[in-house]
Amino acid sequence: MLSSAGAIGFKGSRKGTPYAAQQASLAAAGVARDQYGMKSVEVRVKGRLRPRVRGTRAGRRGLHIVVIRDVTPIPHNGCRPPKRSESEVDVAQRRFAVLQKKWLATKIFKG
């Protein structure tokens, strides 16, 4: 059975609350028990784990939860960052020039 906070009617930041997770798990548990006669389930959770698990455990409604598994997608390296703006490049070049001058000054005085 598949259920989500958005499918129940929560919008925006309310979808990430434990209450929304509880309502979603109640809906899925009701369908699993009533329509399919299931007695035990395996729960797969996406998103921030702690609030979701709390809501899932609260909404089991007579079902035995065998395992709660986190299936949140994890990016391996993420998206490519946007190109740096001209002003950021100028600032970085100025900082490098200052550091280079300081380094040369220490070399002259020591050497």
Q: What is the overall number of helices?
A: 4
Instruction: Characterize the main sheet.
Output: 2 strands, parallel
Number of strands: 2
Principal-axes geometry comes out as rod-shaped
Mean model confidence by pLDDT: 82
Q: State the helical fraction.
A: 40-55%
Poorly predicted ranges: none
Q: CATH superfamily membership of the domain at 5-70, which one?
A: Ribosomal protein S11/S14
Distance between the termini: 74 Å
Order of helices and strands: HHEHEH
CATH topology of the domain at 5-70: Nucleotidyltransferase, domain 5
- Whole-angstrom Rg: 26 Å
Strands of the biggest beta sheet: in what spatial order? 1-2
Estimated structural class:
mainly alpha
Query: What is the correct CATH architecture of the domain at 5-70?
Result: 2-Layer Sandwich
- Our estimate of the beta-strand percent is 5-15%
Describe the protein's architecture and organization.
This protein has a domain at 5-70: Ribosomal protein S11/S14 (Nucleotidyltransferase, domain 5). The chain is mainly alpha-helical and 111 residues long. Helix 2 crosses helix 3 (49-58). The protein starts with a helix and ends with a helix. Helices cover 52% and strands 12% of the residues.
